[in-house]
Amino acid sequence: MYKNFISAAAVLLSFCLCQAENNPTKTSQSETGIEGAILMSPAHGGPIREGMSDSKPLARAKFVVGRAGETKPVASFVTDEKGNFRVSLPPGHYSVTREGGKRGIGSFGPFDVEVGAGKITSVQWHCDSGMR
């Protein structure tokens, strides 16, 4: 009986391994794109205060991603409450700007980034709030 159990377990293990080889899942190693944080500074008017950060996360801001030299966006993302984001993109050169490209006080890009094959490119971008 013990011999039958081991034989059955070996067959089941072989089946599982074969299924895994025939049905590969997408791993994070094959994913490409951009991830990171977007910060804004100065965070408050007036002089920089000792012990206080002069930047803060740019929360819940929508950005569009376009291929360099093209006008049509290929993707978009919204930063979370901590200014973090992640967007999947194929390898290539991209330009990232805040949606709507508001004119006036402040500067929110464009940010140029190169996405390499087989990796997520990490960035930290800083926007100018326009406060002085």
Summary tags:
alpha+beta; four-stranded antiparallel sheet; about 130 residues; globular; four-stranded mixed sheet; single chain; 1 helix
Walkthrough of the structure:
It is globular and about 45 Å long. The protein has one helix at 2-22, and strands at 33-41, 56-57, 62-67, 73-78, 84-88, 92-98, 111-115, 120-128. By secondary structure, the protein is of the alpha+beta class. Mean pLDDT is 79; it is low at 4-27. Strand 3 and strand 4 (73-78) form a beta hairpin. It has one helix and eight strands.
Order of helices and strands: HEEEEEEEE
Mean pLDDT: 79
Briefly note the structural class of the backbone.
alpha+beta
The gyration radius over C-alpha positions equals: 23 Å
Query: What is the percent of helical residues?
Result: 10-25%
Instruction: Determine the N-to-C terminus distance.
Output: 82 Å
Q: How would you sum up the major sheet? A: 4 strands, mixed
Shape: globular
Provide the β-strand percentage band. 35-45%
DSSP E strands, number: 8
Low-confidence stretches: 4-27
Tally of alpha and pi helices:
1
